[in-house]
Amino acid sequence: MRILNLIKSEGLISRIELARRTRISKVAVSEIVSRLTDAGFILEVGKGESTKKGGKKPFLIRINPDNGYVIGVEIRRKSATIALANLDSQIVDSEMVAYPAGLSIDDALESIFTKIDLLISHNDIKPEKLISIAIGVPGFIDYDKGQLIFADTIQGWGSQPLAHRFADRFRVPVFIDNDVNMMALGEFLLGSGKDESNLVYIWIGEGIGAGIIVEGQLLRGRNGSAGEIGYLELGHLIAEKAQFKMLYSDQKYVGEMFVEERLMNTLRKSLYLSSNDDSLVLESIGKDEAELPAQAIETLNEYARLIAVVCSNLIKTLNTNMIILSGKIIESSPYLLKRTKEFVAEIMGAIPFQPTIIVQGELRNTACIKGTIAMALQVVFSQSIKDNALRGILPR
Questions:
Q1: Fold agreement (67-185+367-389, 192-362)
Q2: For the structural domain made of 67-185+367-389, what CATH number should be given?
Q3: Architecture of 2-63 per CATH?
Q4: What angle do CA 243, 249, 253 make, to 5 degrees?
Q5: pTM of model > 0.85
Q6: CATH: 3.40.640.10, 3.20.20.70, 3.40.1390.30, 3.30.420.40. Which one for 192-362?
Q7: Residues 6 or more apart whose Cβ sits within 8 Å of residue 342
Q8: What pLDDT is attached to residue 385?
Q9: How far is residue 170's CA from residue 125's CA, in Å, rounded to a whole number?
Q10: Per-residue pLDDT at 49 exceeds 70
Q11: Which residue has the higher pLDDT, 202 or 7?
Q12: Tens of pLDDT along 172-189?
C-alpha cells in the first residue's frame, strides 16, 4: 500500500523515484508496479526528464482513476447527499435526496438506494467496479453492528441495521461513522489539515461537535462519542456569565449556546435586519468590522470568546497542532475568526504551550461527503489512516 499511496499522492512518478522515496529496491518496486499494472490500478503515461547525469528518460506512472469507484453518503435530518467518486478522490457525479423530517428509515433508504442506482447506471459503472460505500450520519455509532445508537436529528433510525442494509443491497463493504468525524477526515486528507497529523475539527451548525485526529488516526471513542463537546456543561467553562449577555440565557450545555438558528436570530437583531433570510445575515457579518453596528460587534465578540474557551480547553487536553473551525457563521466572518484567535492567545498566554494554528475549514459544506469518499477509499489506500480505524460491514 505504501507504493500505491505514494503514486496517488504524487500524481506522476517514476519507478526510480518510488524506489528512492520508499527505500525499497528497484527490483522489488518493479515487481510491485507490474502487479499493480496487471490489476489495473496504475497506468504508464509517458516519459519524464532525464537525471542530471543523463541516461534514459524514466517512464512515469500514475493511478488509473477508472479502475474502481466508491459511493459516499451524507445523511441529514431532511436530506441526503450521494456522491460517486473515482480512485483519485474526484467526485464524478452526485445527487441529493430530499425528504420530510421524521420520514421512516425504510422510506428514506429506498429513495437513497434509487439515487445510487441512477448514479451507477448514468455513469456506465459496471457492478464489479464498485469497491465500497461509506456513510456519514449524525449521532452515536455502534461500529460492530454498523448502526446508530442514538441521534437527535433522525429519530427512529436508532438500532436499525443501517450499514447492513447498504451492504446487502450493493454487495460491497460499507463503513459508517459520525458525520463530524467524516468532516474531520475530509479536512485531514483533502482539506486544511493535509499537512498535519494531530488536529481537531470543530463544526458549528445545529449544535457543536468535534472530530479528533491523533497521530494520523481518527479518535472515535467507544461508540463514536469522542468529540461530543456540545455536552460540556457551561457552568465549568464560563465563570463570568456577564461576558455573554447576548448569547447566554441559562443554558446548561455548550451545544445549546451554539445552535445555529439561535445564533442567526441573535445576529439578525444585532444587525437590525427584518428579513428572515439567513444569507443576508451571513453577507452582513462578512463585511469589514468598521461597517458593522456596535451591537453586532458585541455579539460576534461573545461568539468568538465562547469558541475560544472551547478551543483552549481542547488545546490543553489534546495539545493539538491545529484547530479547524467550520460552519456557515464562522466561515462567513473574517472578524469572528480574527477575534477567536485573539481570545485564544489571551487565554493561553500565561500557559507554557506552543501556539496552536487556528484556521477555517477549506472544504466547507463538502467536508462530510469528501470524508465519506476518503473513508470508502481506504479499502484500497488503507495506509493513509491506520488500519484499526476501519470497521467495515460486509454483505451477509
A1: yes
A2: 3.30.420.40
A3: Orthogonal Bundle (1.10)
A4: 90
A5: yes
A6: 3.30.420.40
A7: 304
A8: 47
A9: 13
A10: no
A11: 202
A12: 999 999 999 999 999 999
- Per DSSP, 49 falls in state P
d(CA 103, CA 98): 10
Nearest to 73 by CA among 301, 354, 371, 390: 371
Residue 129 is given by DSSP the state: G
∠ CA 32-7-88 to the nearest 5 degrees? 120
Question: Which one has a higher pLDDT value, 9 or 203?
Answer: 203
Q: Is 55 helix (H, G, I), strand (E, B) or coil?
A: coil
* Residues 197 and 123 sit within 8 Å (Cβ to Cβ): no
pLDDT, tens digit, 9 for 90 and up, residues 200-228: 999 998 889 999 999 999 998 877 789 99
Q: What are phi and psi of 69, to 5 degrees?
A: -140, 155
The letter for the amino acid at 218 is L
Number of Cβ atoms within 10 Å of the Cβ of 333: 25
Residues contacting residue 348 through CB under 8 Å, at least 6 positions apart: 312, 315, 355, 356
Q: How far apart are CA 293 and CA 245, in angstroms?
A: 17
Q: Does residue 82 surpass a pLDDT of 90? A: yes
pLDDT of residue 386: 46
> How much is the average pLDDT of 97-105?
93
Domain boundaries, the chain: 2-63, 67-185+367-389, 192-362
Ranges 255-259, 339-343, 386-390: which has the least confidence: 386-390
Q: Please give the share of the chain, as a percent, with pLDDT higher than 90.
A: 65
Q: Is the distance from CB of 375 to CB of 70 less than 8 angstroms?
A: no
The three-state (H, E, C) secondary structure of 355-391, written as one string? CCEEEECCCHHHHHHHHHHHHHHHHCCHHHCCHHHCC
Task: State the cell numbers at 185.
Answer: 477526515
pLDDT at 15 (0 to 100): 87
Contact between residue 312 and residue 344 where contact means Cβ atoms under 8 Å apart? yes
CB 354 within 8 A of CB 137: no
CA 187, 193, 196, 202 torsion: positive or negative? negative
